[in-house]
Design a protein that fits this description.
Strand content: under 5%
CATH architecture: Orthogonal Bundle
Structural class: mainly alpha
Helix content: 40-55%
Shape: globular
Number of helices: 4
Order of helices and strands: HHHH
Number of domains: 1
CATH superfamily: ACP-like
Number of strands: 0
Amino acid sequence: MTEASTAKQLLADATNSDVAAVPADARIGSFERWYSLAHMRLLLSMEQRIGRELDPDEVVQIESLETIIALLQACDRVPTDRAIAPVD
């Protein structure tokens, strides 16, 4: 699964939407289902996906599907010694 499809799936799951309902230009505030609780679910699922807690700088950058993809791509390039145990 590519980072783009993973990001779209994570956002769909967080917003309780079908993947097909997530627009390619989804942004917090413009995608109706992406509200505060959905955003928290997204952050938690991203932490589980990357195997570590997001740092504050990363958290504030997450505002669009595009930034989710960029963060997943960046995390795939980070050495695994930064990883922590998955969040339960």
